[in-house]
Design a protein that fits this description.
heterodimer, A: about 90 residues, 4 helices, B: alpha+beta, Alpha-Beta Plaits, 2 helices, about 25% helix, globular
């Protein structure tokens, strides 16, 4: 009996692995009414979704919806072509 | 007729006069057969994210064009062989934004 309880706790609790409930935004930050426009000229927005080594972050980390992630990737590539964003970082 | 957005990067060493003549040349290519430049944006000299043709800085210019694919092709052909231009990108768009983009240099 005791063991079972412990297991449950570790699953929903604050463990290192598994999903934590605190500060976890489930909805897409680029969808909805007041969402910012995804455009290759909006560098402030694009830089949020690019890693330090200038790679595009996966949507499983940023929680961007599939449609918006495709748009975002396209706009980042446009910005790269114009040397507004780097292809490779440090 | 369709709407296009065209950005080109010129070499940063150009003087104001040379830049004017370049802009005139581009306008002369674009302004015929009913096509025209709707809006112009000058982003100024920016540092490039990576060196292009041994340049570390570039003079950005952004144009909104009402035209067809032939005129864009002609413009790109000119830019490809012009030494004053480092790189360019043209995109088909649905409507021209009314506000200036954040990249416009505030002076």
């Amino acid at each position: 009996m005791k063991r079972k309880k412990d297991k449950k706790k570790s699953k929903s609790g604050n463990s290192l692995f598994g999903k934590s409930n605190t500060g976890y935004n489930k909805t897409c930050p680029l969808s909805g009414k007041n969402a910012p426009e995804i455009n290759y000229k909006n560098l402030k927005l694009l830089k949020k979704y690019v890693s330090e080594t200038a790679k595009i972050l996966p949507s499983r980390i940023t929680n961007v919806s599939l449609g918006k992630q495709k748009k975002l990737a396209l706009e980042i590539k446009k910005a790269r072509a114009l040397a507004l964003l780097p292809y490779v970082g440090n | 007729m369709a709407l296009y957005e065209h950005t080109f990067i010129a070499t940063p060493e150009l003087s104001a006069n040379e830049l004017d003549s370049l802009n005139e040349k581009i306008a002369s290519i674009l302004e015929k057969n009913g096509s025209k430049i709707i809006k112009k944006e000058d982003w100024g000299i920016r540092t490039l994210a990576y060196p292009i043709k041994k340049n570390t800085k570039g003079n950005y210019n952004n144009l909104y064009i009402d035209g067809n694919n032939k005129i864009i092709k002609e413009l790109e052909q000119f830019e490809r062989y012009d030494e004053r231009i480092i790189k360019f990108l043209s995109i088909k768009i649905k409507k021209v934004p009314e506000e200036n983009s954040e990249l416009v240099k505030n002076s």
